[in-house]
Design a protein that fits this description.
The protein is 69% helix and 0% strand. It is an all-alpha fold.
Length: 385
């Protein structure tokens, strides 16, 4: 135990060096992205995939109990049991959470025509928590899947109501839309907390109020696998989401059913969010900051940024989880705390950047802007008609 604690400063320093290295490589690829070479065009994707692979392997051997490759290959039963029951399920849950929440945020931002809309600022997480509470009230002995059904229904309804409400606001400011979502989410959260206090369910509800992966074990996390087909479905309809993001009239002129695609996309985002909340708990800001950071380098087209958004989201969540495991080892910080601190700072920075520069892309070492700075500038405030 003492040796493990002594190694943690070195682990944090090495993690910081690797993170800085891949961030510099990602920034350099932005300069050569338009030179025509397929390798250069997808170099950022390859770097993110490589970084994710390295961190994934590293996380499997990071924990209070020492696990090493030689012990696993030699058939050490204790190490194999910990690896298969705890470490591997935790890694898969982290990857699914990062990919799912990032893609859900990307879909909501495109459909709502606002870069600050996400499951956090769109009342989706609050609605999913209300569904879980009602499942516990009406079915005290409910299973994971029965709670998930309640969470799916309320997350979808809450997201639909939020979008229906903002569509009826005539003058949508870039900041006002997420503020409306935050207020709507607080209303739902207030009702949820009132019901929890009224029926003495506060302690039970707290399990889903703060996201953490410490309780992810074999047999208790498989619901997050539902994220995989939902993300594939989002990729198949990526072009439709782009068209719907241009406005109702534009969609109708191209023969795309606006309302159907809109509510299908919102349903996909809500189901992804509910799946994460039921298994892991509420994790804020992932769906907000990850798509914005990727869009600043890659543009706003969903099909062109979906893979990078998914990879960067998984990498961001994994790194935050690893930081939470080593900061106060052998104890562990909830990932919601780490993501909340980093996410709030990045959210403020993005807010100031968007207010000052609009949708202008980050171009290191070269002048000009990418697709996110060109024809879609008017969509930031939501006035696409």
């Amino acid at each position: 135990m003492a040796n493990y604690i002594e190694k943690q400063p070195t682990c944090i320093w090495t993690l910081a060096r690797y993170t800085l290295f891949f961030a510099q490589k990602l920034a350099k690829t932005n300069q050569n992205r338009e030179e025509g070479s397929p390798i250069k065009q997808h170099l950022s994707t390859l770097l993110l995939a490589a970084a994710l692979l390295v961190c994934s392997v590293w996380s499997l051997f990071l924990g209070v109990i020492d696990i090493n490759l030689s012990g696993l290959l030699s058939g050490n039963l204790e190490q194999l049991e910990i690896f298969l029951i705890s470490r591997l399920p935790r890694l898969l849950a982290i990857l699914c959470t990062g990919v799912g929440m990032s893609v859900a945020g990307l879909i909501m931002q495109q459909l709502c025509m606002n870069k600050f809309v996400s499951p956090t600022t769109g009342a989706t997480i609050s609605s999913a928590q209300m569904g879980i509470l009602l499942a516990l009230l009406f079915q005290p002995n409910s299973t994971l899947w029965s709670r998930a059904i309640f969470s799916f229904v309320f997350a979808i309804l809450g997201t639909w109501i939020f979008v229906w409400f903002i569509q009826r606001i005539q003058f949508k400011d870039v900041v006002m839309v997420p503020l409306v979502g935050i207020m709507f989410g607080n209303v739902i959260g207030g009702i949820t907390n009132y019901l929890a206090y009224q029926f003495e369910m506060t302690q039970a509800l707290s399990t889903w109020s703060v996201g953490h992966f410490s309780l992810v074990l074999q047999g208790r996390y498989e619901l997050v696998y539902l994220i995989v087909p939902l993300v594939i479905l989002a990729f198949l309809f990526a072009n439709h989401f782009n068209i719907v993001g241009m406005g109702k009239e534009f969609s109708r002129n191209l023969g795309v059913p606006y309302n159907l695609v809109l509510f299908m996309g919102l349903t996909i985002a809500a189901m992804i969010t509910a799946s994460v909340v039921v298994v892991v708990g509420a994790i804020s800001y992932i769906g907000l900051i990850v798509p914005n950071v990727v869009a600043m380098f890659k543009g706003d087209k969903i099909r062109g940024t979906l893979v990078d958004t998914a990879l960067f989201g998984a990498l961001f969540v994994l790194v935050c989880d690893m930081i939470g495991r080593v900061v106060i080892a052998p104890y562990e910080l909830p990932i919601e705390l780490i993501v909340g601190i980093l996410g709030s700072l990045i959210f403020i920075a993005l807010l100031l950047y968007r207010l000052r520069h609009g949708r202008k892309a980050v171009r290191l070492g070269a002048a000009g802007t990418s697709g996110c700075a060109a024809s879609l500038g008017a969509l930031e405030g939501g006035d696409a008609r």
